[in-house]
Design brief:
This protein is mostly beta strands. It is built from no helices and 11 strands. Strands 2, 4, 5, 6, 9, 10 and 11 form a 7-stranded mixed β-sheet that branches. Strands 1-3-8-7 form a 4-stranded antiparallel β-sheet, with no helix packed on it. The radius of gyration is 13 Å and the shape is globular.
Length: 126
């Protein structure tokens, strides 16, 4: 079982940077792929970024590639999303997600993940 708690969201201006965090509980954290998804009002939840259990491999949606960086600290059971050059279209609730460590599927569908946090709101003003 993994419990996830996001933090660090807020209101920023276009062009600003923000780092959000996801603290995980449970021994499985260091053995599982972690992801960040986001959901804007009236839209479906969409993939943003994912990171392998070791942190050696990272994956990004085209919409955030080059601006966002996902990282993890397994000693602290925490995954981060550094967001630079933020745009108003990045406004959304950001969700942290964890896969079951025995899962061998993809990483970009919501159905690839078994555990979800409650979300943190990021609002980018123009």
């Amino acid at each position: 079982q993994v419990q996830l708690v996001e933090s660090g969201g807020g209101l920023v201006q276009a062009g600003d940077s923000l780092r959000i965090s996801c603290a995980a509980s449970g021994r499985m954290f260091s053995r599982t792929i972690m992801g960040w998804f986001r959901q804007a009002p009236g839209k479906e939840r969409e993939f943003g970024a994912a990171i392998s259990w070791s942190g050696d491999s990272t994956y990004y949606a085209d919409s955030v590639k080059g601006r966002f960086t996902i990282s993890r600290d397994n000693a602290k059971n925490t995954v981060y999303l550094q967001m630079n050059s933020l745009k108003p279209e990045d406004t959304a609730t950001y969700y942290c997600a964890a896969q079951n460590p025995y899962y061998t599927g993809a990483y970009y569908y919501t159905s690839d993940y078994s555990y979800w946090g409650q979300g943190t709101q990021v609002t980018v003003a123009s």
